[in-house]
Amino acid sequence: MMQQVSSALGDFTLIDNDDLPLDNSLKKHTDSPYHWKPRYWAPWPLPKDYQLPNAGWTRPPQQPIKLTGVNVIDVEHGRILPDMTVKIRQGFFERVSRRNGNDDKFDIQAQPEWMEIDCKGLYMCPGLIDCHVHILAEAAGEDGWSDIMAAYRVAHDLKGMLGNGFTTIRDVGGATRHHREATEQWLIPGPRLYIGGPVLSQTGGHGDHSDRDAAPTPGMISDGNMGPMSIIVDGVDACLKAARKLMMAGADHIKICSSGGVLSPTDKVDSDQFTVPEIKAICDTVRSMGGTLVTAHCNTTQGARNAIEAGVMGIEHGSLIDEPTLKLMAEKGVHLTPTLIVQEMIVNGPLGAQVPKVSLEKAKVVAGATYEMIKIAHRVGVNIAYGTDIIVDVQLSEFDLRATILPSPVILKQATCNGAKVLGMKDKLGCIKEGAFADFLLLDANPLEDIKILNRPDTHLKAVVKDGRCVRSTVAGLEVEIPL
């Protein structure tokens, strides 16, 4: 018996046990990803194909999808490939080709399980990549840090990011492998997640939010009011041990602080942090243990040079870095992830009233230099990624800010294929190519002509697909498999 129930949270259908399938029909019931339900019950005796452990949250394979007549955005070359056919199976792009009526008809007849979607007039864009987020930063409550409440709040924000079109994010301070695995298994609908664990900081550095009058404690977690977002380490031995522990815990990368920052309470924004030997110990550890790279929170020229000399391959923010150092970054393939929206939210937005006066003054210093730094970095050939360092609500606003200094095709590359290079996932993410992950957006306008359309998702964003599974859609025939 089924019963329709209305509540403040929406309409729901209650299903009695009598309506659940029995025996062989249990398998049939769970085969379709669009009619799948988590397994909370099974008949007795158990079906012959029943296995333990029973991961009841495991979804059926992704429904094969064929999208026809779609305008594919080639972000790497800044062009449109019109009237294309794109086939998706098992979470990957299987075929990207010119539309051919005879071949398409044969394929559908031979493979009736394919779901065909007419996308005429729509633009297919690779899923967006934000290479600088802190998913735990907004999870602290008024009563301080709680791991349990943080998990629920993070789930809320991850769903929002995915719904806005970010199919991949890189957390650079706090997130763990458990957050990554939760989105991989679709326990939480959210972006593909790359994590580094807590940031490594020297005593008195950007990551040190401890009591400035307290005695130093080697290797301590410095959480302030934002959870375990940094570890304080001093000396080569401590850096080695902390880096090894983070890699053991499942880090994809490690982030350090090689200069002062805006929100840190006790350092100067133009201070240089960690010695070259300390940084080198961390970089050597990440390389030897199979990580992608070490990236550095860094605003200063000398902090960047120290980091690059020691083996760092990514610079976050970079506001005060001079042109010769940017050229060095381009020569050595060191990535840059600037973050405009967070400083604008402090200097010209509501965060200014919430931060200490010293942080506001530091924010004004970096905000006045970052735009020109980005223009120079682009001109000299640095690989620039899209990063925000900010809350979900304004994550897309970074597009509007970058549009004041760079062309739309350049910015779209930053938010797609450039970010994939930072993650070590070139040709697998941030592109629409055979063999790449099937992460994409469907838009009713061309972001190569105006990148700012991406910051109007309610108007122009028609579908979001990650791993070939649709989470948001107003496109006829393209069903939402996993609602947000």
UniProtKB/TrEMBL annotation:
Coiled coil: none annotated. It comes from Naematelia encephala. It comes from the Eukaryota. Keywords: Hydrolase. One of its GO terms (molecular function) is hydrolase activity, acting on carbon-nitrogen (but not peptide) bonds. SUPFAM superfamilies: Composite domain of metallo-dependent hydrolases, Metallo-dependent hydrolases. This is Amidohydrolase. The keyword Hydrolase applies. CDD domains: Met_dep_hydrolase_A. Residues 123-469 form the Amidohydrolase-related domain.
